[in-house]
Amino acid sequence: MTIEDLTEQRKEGATVITRDSWLKSIMAGLCIGIGGVVYLSVESKVVGAMLFATGLFTICTFGYNLYTGKACYLLDSDNKGAYLLWLGQIWLGNLIGTAAVGYGMRLTRVGSSLAEKAMGLCETKLSDSLVSIFILAVLCNIMIYIAVENYKNNPHQPGKYLAIFLGVSVFILCGFEHCIANMFYFSVANVWSMHTLGYLVVMTLGNLVGGVLPEAFKKLGTR
Description:
223 residues, mainly alpha, globular
C-alpha cells in the first residue's frame, strides 16, 4: 500500500488499520530500537545521537509507520477521528517493535551493559515532573516535524537527508522526550510499571502536540 493509497483512504474516512499498516508500524519500532542500541553502545553522545538517526533515515526511506512522524500530519486528515485511531494502531505497533528489540537484547552478551546504561536514562526520565516531560516531548516532535517535512519537501537532495540527521541529533542532545525511543529504553531496562506507562502517555501526548503545532502555524500563515 502506497502513501497515495493511505491518503485516499483517509479522505474516504477509513481507519487504514490493515496488516500492511501493522507490519510497517512494527518495522518502524524495530528501527528505532536498533537506533537505541547503537546510542547506548558508543561512548560519545554526539556520535551516538548521529548514529541513532539511522533509525528515522531507514523509516523514511522504506515508508514505515512511526507514530511521531505520522502525528505531524493530523491536521491534513479529512477524518481526524479515523486518523487518531490509525495513530493509536501505529503507536501499538511501534511498542511491539521496540519491546522486541529491547527484551531481545537482554538475552544477548551485551544485554547487561545496555540495560545498565538504559537504567540511568530511565531513572532520570521517570523522576522528572510531568510538566517537564510534556514540554520536552513537545519540543522533541517539533524537531521531528522539521526532519520529516524536509525529507518530504526539501528540493535539495542533500538537504532531505541532512534534515533527518540534524533533527534527530538535536532532539537527543537536548534531552527531549521521544515516546517511541523511550519504549525501547524502558524495555531494555525492564522498568515497565503503571508509573512508567503514565509517563509514556504524557510523552505521547506531548509528541502529538509538538507535531501538530508547526503544521497549525503553517496553515495560519497561508490564510
